[in-house]
Amino acid sequence: MTKKIRKIIFIIILALLYVLPVFAHKVIVFAWMENGLVHTESSFGGDDRVHNGKITAFDAKGNLIFKGVTDDNGELSFTVPDNFHSDLIIKLDACTGHQAQWRIPKEKFKNSSSAEDINRAMEKKAELESGPSFFQIIAGIGIIFLIAFAGRFINKKYRNKNR
Amino acid sequence: MHISEGVLSGPVMAAGAAFAIAGTVAGLKKIDYDRIVHVAILASAFFVASLIHVNIGPSSVHLILNGIVGILLGWSAFPAILVGLLLQAILFQYGGITALGVNTVIMAVPAVICYYLFSPFLGKGQKITFAAAFMAGAVAILLSSILLGAALWFTEKNFLEVAITVIAAHIPVMIIEGIITGFCVSFFLKVYPEIIPKGIK
Hints:
Chain A is of the alpha+beta class. Helix content of chain A is 38%, strand content 25%. Chain B has helices at residues 10-30, 36-49, 66-73, 77-92, 100-118, 126-153, 159-191; strands at 53-56, 59-62. A two-stranded antiparallel sheet of chain B has the order 1-2. By secondary structure, chain B is mainly α. The chains are: A alpha+beta, B mainly alpha.
C-alpha cells in the first residue's frame, strides 16, 4: 500500500469520525387521535424535540382550525369542533426554514381510536424518528466516490478522444 | 440550514436551481480530474457533517463544513456540495428535493467566496494558515445564514427577523466550524499537503 493511499484512508477515517455522535436532523410532526384529543409530537428525529415550534391545523379546504406552540417535550394536544368532518392537516414551523406536516384522515374523527390503532401509530412514529443507519452513511460515501470515479473515467475517455 | 419541502415559493426555487446549475457547470469545468479523490473526500466530509447537531432555541443547528470544502476546492465546491445535499435529502430526509437548488446556493456560494478570500493565506506560516482557515469556517456559516435569511425573505417573511434568528442560532456553529477548519487545514498541510489547492502550498 503506497504512502498516498494510506493517507487517503486515514482522511476517510477522519471524516467518518464526525459521525460518532449520530443524531438526525430531519423535521417531523406526528399526530394521532386518542380520547377525542388530537395529540402532536414534533422532533428533529430521535429524542431531539422541537421546543416552541409553531403548530397550525387546517381542514382540507385550508380553513384554520387550531394554532399553538409545542412545549419543552415537543408536544401539543388540542380538540377539534364536534361537527368536524374533514381531513386534518397539521403543519409544524420549527423556524429557519424547517417545516413539516402530517395529515389525519377524516375517518379517524368518526370512529374512536382502538388500542391497536394507537399502537400502530406509535410504531409509525418510532419509524419516522429513527436516525440514519450506518449502512446509509456508508452507502452515501460509496455513491460519492462512485460518482467521482465515473466523472474521472468519462473525462479521461473524452480527453483521449480529442487527442 | 437545510430548507424543507414546501417552505419556498416557486420563483425562489427556480432561481436557486438556475444558480445551482450554473455554479455546478462552472465547478465541473474547473475540477482537476487527476485530483478528483480530494473532491470526493471533502464531499463525504460535508455529507456526514450534518449528522452532528446542537439544539438552540426552537431550532436545531448542525455542522456544515462548507468553509473547509470551499477553501480546499474552490469552484469544485459546487458539485461536491450539490451531491452531498442530494444524498442527504434522499438518504436522511434532510431538506427538500425541490429546495435542493436553493440549499446548494446557500452553502456553495459562501464556500467559493471563502476560497477567494482566505485560500491565498494558506501555507504562509502556521498561525496565518490557522487564522485563515478559522475565518473560512466561520465566515462561510455567516454568509450561509444571510443567504438563508434572504431565501426565506423572498418567500414573504421578514428578512431582518429571520436573518438575525438564523445568524444568532449559528454563532456556536461558526466558532466550532472555525476551530475544526483551522485544525483540519493545518493538519492537512503537515501530513497531506497535496490536498491544498495547487499554487498555494
